[in-house]
Specification:
There is one protein chain. This protein has a two-stranded antiparallel ribbon. It is built from five helices and two strands. It is mainly α. 62% of the residues lie in helices and 4% in strands. Helix 3 crosses helix 4 (70-96). The chain has helices spanning 13-20, 24-33, 53-66, 70-96, 99-104; strands at residues 10-11, 48-49. It has a single domain (3-99), classed as Multidrug-efflux Transporter Regulator, Chain: A, Domain 2 (Orthogonal Bundle), CATH 1.10.1660.
Length: 105
C-alpha cells in the first residue's frame, strides 16, 4: 500500500471496503452512482476521505437488516450525509444562541 494513503483521514479502497463490510465491486458501483468520490488531493488521488466511513458503515448495516440492493443503499448514504450536515448546522446555530434565549425557546 502507498504510504500517502495512511495519512490521517485517508483510506484506500481495500481499507474502506474492509472497514464498512462492502466488496470492492460494491464500492465501484457506489463510485459509478456518484455516491462515493475519491479525495481530491495530489497526495492521495485514489484515496477516500475517512468521513465517508460512517455513512457507508451505517448504510451497509441497514442493508443487511433490510436486504437492500446497492442502489437503495446509495440513496441511504446520501440521506445519512444530509442528516449529518443538518445536525452540524443545528449545533452551530445552537452554539450562537445566547444561553438566556435558548432557555426561553
Amino acid at each position: 500500500m502507498n504510504a500517502h494513503l495512511h495519512e490521517p483521514g485517508v483510506l484506500d479502497a481495500t481499507e474502506l471496503s474492509l472497514a464498512c463490510g462492502l466488496t470492492l465491486e460494491e464500492l465501484s458501483e457506489l463510485l459509478d452512482y456518484g455516491v462515493l468520490q475519491f479525495c481530491v488531493s495530489r497526495e492521495a488521488p485514489e484515496g477516500f476521505n475517512a468521513q465517508a466511513l460512517w455513512p457507508l458503515r451505517e448504510a451497509a448495516r441497514q442493508r443487511a437488516i433490510f436486504d437492500l440492493d446497492i442502489f437503495t443503499m446509495g440513496l441511504l448514504v446520501d440521506y445519512l450525509r444530509t442528516i449529518e450536515e443538518l445536525q452540524a448546522q443545528l449545533r452551530a446555530l445552537n452554539a450562537r444562541v445566547p444561553t438566556e434565549l435558548s432557555s426561553e425557546i
